[in-house]
């Protein structure tokens, strides 16, 4: 698997702690962390504990359907956070990877007109990402094996991808 980045659970622990330290050292103090489900849930949880932020929100966005397979555009899935819940907040958007950046851009743009400030934190960022995140643990241009998505599901459900 030399053509891939491999993130283990142990390395994720170190990566998320280092990412949190970078954010804290920068002086950024988010009021809330907005995770992009599903991969961002792990990142947001780890950052929430490390930065002592209990206010976590989730935004579900469908984009990837498989390895290098994606919809034409990312799609927000319900429930979409209410703008009033974000009003005036300092928001940290958390995801596992900024690949094309399309998902992060959708979420950041959604927040931008409602919040005081929005910044993005990811474990990995790829060079082609249209969003340059403020906080990145590592840069790569390779496919990433995340510990939460490397193994196949225990149960296979019927396709849940939206028709775009």
Name its key features.
single chain; 164 residues; alpha/beta; Rossmann fold; six-stranded mixed beta sheet; transferase; PRTase_dom
Q: How would you explain this protein's 3D organization?
A:
- The chain is an alpha/beta fold and 164 residues long.
- It has a single domain, classed as Rossmann fold, CATH 3.40.50.
- Helix content is 27%, strand content 34%.
- The chain is built from 4 helices and 8 strands.
- It has a 6-stranded mixed sheet. A two-stranded parallel ribbon has the order 1-8.
- The radius of gyration is 15 Å and the shape is globular.
- Keywords: Glycosyltransferase, Transferase.
- It comes from Nocardia tenerifensis.
Question: Short description, anyone?
Answer:
This protein has four helices and eight strands. With 164 residues, it is of the alpha/beta class. The longest helix is centred in the N-terminal third of the chain and has 17 residues, at 9-25.
Element layout with pairings:
Layout: E1 4-6, H1 9-25, E2 32-37, H2 39-50, E3 56-66, E4 69-77, H3 83-86, E5 90-98, H4 102-112, E6 117-125, E7 135-139, E8 143-145
Parallel strand pairs: 1-8, 2-3, 2-5, 5-6, 6-7
Antiparallel strand pairs: 3-4
Q: What summary fits the major beta sheet? A: 6 strands, mixed
> By helix and strand content, what is the structural category?
alpha/beta
Element string (H = helix, E = strand): EHEHEEHEHEEE
Would you tell me which CATH topology applies? Rossmann fold
